[in-house]
Amino acid sequence: MKVENIAEPIEGIIFDMDGLLVNSEKLYWDANIVAAKEANLNIPDDSYLKLVGSSVKEMEEFYHQHFKTEADRDKFIKRTDELVWEWTDQGKLKLQAGVRDALVEFEEKNIKLAIASSNYDEVVAHNLEVLKIKDYFDFYLSYKDVEAGKIKAKPAPDIYLLAAQKMQLPKDNLLVFEDSSTGVASASAAGLKCVMVPDLKQPTILDKKNATLICKDFYSFLKKIK
After folding, report:
1. Contact 206, 200 (CB under 8 A)
2. Cα 88–chain centre separation
3. Which of 30, 80, 140, 152: disulfide with 115, CB 3.0–4.6 Å?
4. C-alpha torsion sign, points 132, 139, 188, 185
5. Residues 154-190, buried b or exposed e (16+ Cβ, 10 A)?
């Protein structure tokens, strides 16, 4: 597959999931607000934007700032995850704009597809099943693979290096799709071309440097296919 402004033909694509394929970052944000109010936590609603696409270090800093004990933190995280799972089953989880059309297009062009997510294995599987897109992907990696392989999470390049290895294709012929600065940094550090499709946060100066392309949605990317 030939793409404007990319010299090499693309034979494989690796996707992030949250905020990229699905609208889950907004669901997590909403769930954070509900969980905090239930626990009578005085955290401003816009504070949770810091957690969108955040690294493990950034999340730990947020929790340290707002929670007095690990038990309080864990209760908040558990309630957030429960709400998002419940809302997913209620149909609130949606594919982002143009995703289904893009998956169909890539499948027709025999592009090998995979997911490299920082989320839990059961959440990735649940999302793929609920949205009926599981069969488009050759494999997916999740936080389970980070733990099992004793590798570092994004923004370290490890999960994308592992995904690229499993693709069994030359790195020059691979393309990553990401929505967050953390993910773009991870793909760039892995030496992979990356298309950024921003979700809740706009691209930073560093994102513009690291990303091969920046598209407002998947429809915009599809127009770049030659």
Report:
1. no
2. 16
3. 140
4. positive
5. bbbbbbbbbbbebbeeebebbbbbbbbbbbbbbbbbb
189 Cα distance to chain centroid:
16
Strand order from edge to edge, sheet including 112-116: 139-141, 112-116, 12-15, 174-178, 193-196, 213-214
Per-residue pLDDT of the chain (226 residues; tens, 9 = 90+): 999 999 999 999 999 999 999 999 999 999 999 998 898 888 878 777 777 777 777 888 888 888 888 888 899 999 999 999 999 999 999 999 999 999 999 999 999 999 999 999 999 999 999 999 999 999 999 999 999 888 899 999 999 999 999 999 999 999 999 999 999 999 999 999 999 999 989 999 999 999 999 999 999 999 999 8
Question: Which residues, 6+ apart, have CB-to-CB distance to 155 below 8 Å?
Answer: 55, 181, 182, 183, 185, 186, 189
C-alpha 66, offset from chain centre: 25
Residue 132 token pair? 């009926």
Burial (CB < 10 A; 0-12, 13-18, 19+), residue 89, is exposed
172/12 Cα distance (integer angstroms): 10
pTM of the predicted model, to two decimals? 0.93
Overall residue count recorded for the chain in this entry: 226
